[in-house]
C-alpha cells in the first residue's frame, strides 16, 4: 500500500554543478525538492521506488548508476555503467542528498498509455505493506518566449491544473491528463504522474504543494503526499 509520495522535477540545473551562474535562481526549488524527499525518508516505508520517464518500461536495481554527460555536465551518480535516464539520475541524486536509499528505479515509457501507467502504479503500491514513491517529472516546456519549445498559450493553464492536482492529491485529475496534449506541450512528467495516480488510488493521501515555478519556461513542481 502506498503511504507517501514525493513529486519533483528533473532538470539537470537542479544540481549545483550544472546550475553554475543560475544556482541562486534554482536554490528555492532545490530546497523544496529536498524537503519533499526528506519527507519520504522519515515515513517508515518498507520499500521505496523512484519513478521517472524514459525510453521504455523497465526496472533498474538499487545500485544502478546514471550520468549527466549527455547534457554537458560531467557528473555521474553511482558507480558502474550509466543506465538510468535523466529523470531517474536526478532522482537518485536527490535521494543521496537526504540519505534515502531506494530499493528500485522504475522507468516508464514517456509515451505509455494512461491505463498502462495506472497498472504500473498499482503494482508498485502492492509491492509491500508500506510503500513510498519518489515521482520525477517536469511540466510543459512551452511557457513563454524563453521556453525551450515554442510558446503555447495552453501551457500556463496546463501546468496550473497539474499544480492544483498535486496540491490536492487528486489522482482523478492526474488520470485525466491527455497524453496527446501533454506531448504537444512538451511535458516530461505525464506518464510518471499517472503511475503515481494508479498507485495512490484509494490510499487517502493528503497533498502539500511545496513549489510551483517556471523559471526557464518549464513547469517545475515539488510536492509531498502523506
TrEMBL record:
This is Extradiol ring-cleavage dioxygenase class III enzyme subunit B domain-containing protein. It comes from the Bacteria.
Amino acid at each position: 500500500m502506498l503511504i507517501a509520495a514525493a513529486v519533483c522535477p528533473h532538470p539537470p540545473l537542479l544540481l549545483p554543478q550544472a546550475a553554475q551562474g543560475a544556482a541562486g535562481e534554482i536554490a528555492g526549488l532545490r530546497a523544496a525538492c529536498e524537503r519533499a524527499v526528506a519527507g519520504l525518508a522519515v515515513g517508515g516505508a518498507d520499500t521505496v521506488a523512484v519513478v521517472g520517464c524514459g525510453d521504455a518500461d523497465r526496472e533498474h536495481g538499487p545500485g544502478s548508476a546514471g550520468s549527466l554527460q549527455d547534457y554537458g555536465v560531467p557528473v555521474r551518480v553511482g558507480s558502474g555503467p550509466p543506465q538510468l535516464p535523466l529523470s531517474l539520475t536526478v532522482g537518485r541524486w536527490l535521494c543521496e542528498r537526504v540519505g534515502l536509499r531506494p530499493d528500485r528505479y522504475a522507468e516508464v515509457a514517456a509515451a505509455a498509455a494512461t491505463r498502462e501507467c495506472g497498472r504500473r502504479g498499482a503494482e508498485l503500491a502492492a509491492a509491500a505493506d508500506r510503500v513510498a514513491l519518489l515521482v520525477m517529472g517536469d511540466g510543459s516546456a512551452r511557457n513563454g518566449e524563453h521556453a525551450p519549445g515554442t510558446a503555447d498559450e495552453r501551457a500556463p493553464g496546463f501546468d496550473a491544473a497539474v499544480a492544483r492536482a498535486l496540491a490536492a492529491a487528486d489522482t482523478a485529475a492526474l488520470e485525466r491528463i491527455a497524453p496527446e496534449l501533454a506531448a504537444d506541450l512538451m511535458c516530461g512528467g505525464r506518464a510518471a504522474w499517472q503511475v503515481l495516480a494508479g498507485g495512490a488510488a484509494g490510499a487517502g493521501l493528503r497533498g502539500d504543494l511545496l513549489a510551483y515555478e517556471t523559471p526557464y519556461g518549464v513547469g517545475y513542481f515539488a510536492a509531498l503526499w502523506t
